[in-house]
Structures
1.
Amino acid sequence: MKQYILTGGPSSGKTTLIGMLSDDFQTVPEAAELVIQEQQTKGIEIPQIQPNFQGLVYQKQKQQLEDLPYAPIAIFDRSIADGLAYCALFDKPVPDGLASEDLTNRFEEVFLIENLGFAQDNGIRYEDNDLSIKIQEQLFKTYRELGYNPIRVPAFCDLSKDDSIAQRMKIIYEQIKC
């Protein structure tokens, strides 16, 4: 299975793009968002600041991989490598298991979905635009350190929302090798 990753800071449009890609490919939703929702139902208002948050995300991502039906191509809304970036940025310990994962040559391509210039409070994410940009750049740095050359997918802020999405999708489709 060829694995492609969409990564980027919060509110960059990854989930919108993944939703559109799901018409043609096997897609995997963002594990962190699922963990946040699960933890919030347990009464934890901001799970992201809990010491074990990245460990919970890592476990969810491992489960998603185990449960994933075979498809020639799978596109992920983030990968376990994102956990390394978050740990580095926020000076948190890397969860057990993640530190020993061999992430080299695992992904066909990594797409860095660039910041839209604003951050939306969707009840799950608390990051503002400045923090979103810092996260984006740490993700880029982390993937580079792992040997990847992330393809930057611009926001196309000068275009309408629909045209911006269309341009972003074009970049992604041009790189996916069927």
2.
Amino acid sequence: MTPIKECLINNKTDLIPIWLMRQAGRYLPEFREIRKNNPNFINLCLNSKLSKEITLQPIKRFGFDAAIIFSDILMIPYGLGQKVEFKKNFGPNLEDFEIGKLKEIDEKFKILKNVVTAIDLGAAPGSWSQYLSQKINHGKILAIDILEFQKINKVHQLIGDFTNENSKEKIRDYFNKKVDLVVSDMAVNTTGNKNLDSIVTGELCMDAMTFAKNQLNYNGKFISKLFMGTSFNEIVSEAKKIFKEVSIFKPPSSRKDSKESFIICKILR
């Protein structure tokens, strides 16, 4: 039996196990040479030929018995569809999952084209509002949620229950006119009963849609989360009565096993 196997099964051995962490291995000159020629770290990890070569470097240099395949913990969020990038003098930066969803919706449906005023319903933790604030330069944005969330530059924050008429009145008073965009990421806290969760989230979507119908200008746009379930067809049917253009979209960054989709509506009838 090889020494490494003896150690793994906890047999007595005269050898002292040595663990060389990758953080130390990355200072090997042979690794640094590969890294210099491959600046994109994610692509480096995905390159099976180079990963194999890097894995074997400590064995070749020090005569170790075994090695763990070269990779990085950042491959987990990458594999889940989260955007991973490296910023100079900072390190790895993970894009917010929810920002990614709105960004994908915007890239496909151009929802922020000519948008100056926007309302974000169910805004916590603030992901969608952050994206809106980046894209709307000289406009007006209001974000509301029943939970407190971080302050965001150029966004007016309102803490309250959107389904309460008093909260809706505060939103109308803030703008005092029709708006260009209403987005809603509102969803019920999941109970484990997928049909019930779909129904309750559907009710939130319908409430947001009714509000949008009265608050949007003629060319306004409405985007809302909804779940596949018993109320799905009813929501889509109602949307088609209110808007001229209605689409259903599941962003690539949304989990494949999730019943989550988004309804994208444009131009009031």
3.
Amino acid sequence: MQFNEKIKITHGIDLIVRRKDGSIKAERHYGDIKDGVKRKIKDGFFTRLYKRLTKKCIMIDGITNAGKAAMAGLDLADITVNAFDWLAIGTGTTGFLATQTTLITETHREAGTGTRVMTTVANDTAQLVATFSGYAGTEAITEIGKFNAASGGDMQMRQTFAALNVDWDQGDVFEATVIAVPDEKWGEVPKAFINPKPGASLTEKDIINFCRKRLARFKVPKKVEFGEIPKTSTGKVMKYVLRKKEWAGYEKGVH
């Protein structure tokens, strides 16, 4: 028996880095599906060219040979195929090859939650969502893969993309703002106001050391104050309130 209808396997990727407060820090999207919904408007030629040149996403087909073989086995009762329920991320930058069996430099792997969503007809798209958190240090994530085991196993697909910089340690700070305050030696210096996450055990030294590793010397706060940060009803930091307190007794709010 022969069927004329062709079945095509494609993949779509949504990668989102969120800050501790839930706001989006950076994101990457690839394919015709975004947030589980088929895009109504596809990228034009120049947009696709730009994404390719800037490496927002590279390689059209990210399905591996092992992934294609596994998908073919799903149609047969005599063949057992392990579910691809794990997502792994890494820092490798080598382009995709269908013969690849692992990420180039895997750093973390998490089990995902799978659902079926509609792209063209009901339940024609498998969606797997995983959250990565609780790690230490910083990473420039550049690759993602889908696996059928918590470690090792077969890789169904791999996608590379422009680096998503993740700072796993930054989650302790809930709110922060910096203003210039008077200083007898330098005229004025940066001062940071920090409202830590409940339960966090941050010190002034922790904040200053953290900034020294990431900022130019002149940008590093010389002083740190912990507590509530005054904000407007819309959530905007009222820096003028902080400046007024710090510059009390001076004729002008600048040296």
4.
Amino acid sequence: MSLLSCPRSALRLAGALAVTFALGAIAGPAVARGSGIVSWKDANGVTHYTNVPGEAKRAQSAAEAEPSVTALTARDMRAHSAVFKFKDATGVTHYTDKRPVGRSYLVINVYCPACDPRSPVNWDRTKLNLTAYTDSIQASATEYGVDPALVRAIIHAESAFNPQAMSRKGAQGLMQLMPGTASQYGVSNPYDASENIRAGVRHLASLLKSYNGDVKLAAAAYNAGQGAVQKYGGVPPYEETRLYVQRVGTLHKRYQVGS
């Protein structure tokens, strides 16, 4: 569940689970009336929401007892490459930009540098990952006839090799599969690296076949969808997509030569 695109229905949580959100992630008036959700403001002035009665005071006390944990505003979310999700001792789920210490947590990626027109990354020099998931990438690339260097380029651009990555739009895992795409290819766990890679490569192979092996069009469709490529008769004029295609191309060439 993406913090910045959380459907209202997702707030109707079962059991003792409560979720804290930063102000700006959810419109207060939209959830305050008749939803059983109460809000509280921490020492930093950040407003949080929870759906468990009495949890506000406990969550506030927990937050004050752990000054290293901070909640993110919507603006902060766009400025950070990762968000850490964890549960505190009271069962409240938190999202923070600071890596939790001494507790288990999930890393949620909410930012795609390759998709950001303002990304400061130098794509000609950024460090490559030549070793992660080698067996899965090679096996899937061979099975579906896709250049493994292109698979690495897509994974690098989409998730920076973070198997727990989840975008604001709900894309999941290494190759950032949307739920519909994951379902189409029979993925049961999009955060399982081998499952995600196999489905992502299969999808990429399908796009390459549709565009007669044109990597630019396949990358554009991977980012913006086949409908957008068809509508514009090529790479869509979206700044994000044009830069994404360019950056994937740069990474692809670099992964081909291994530097």
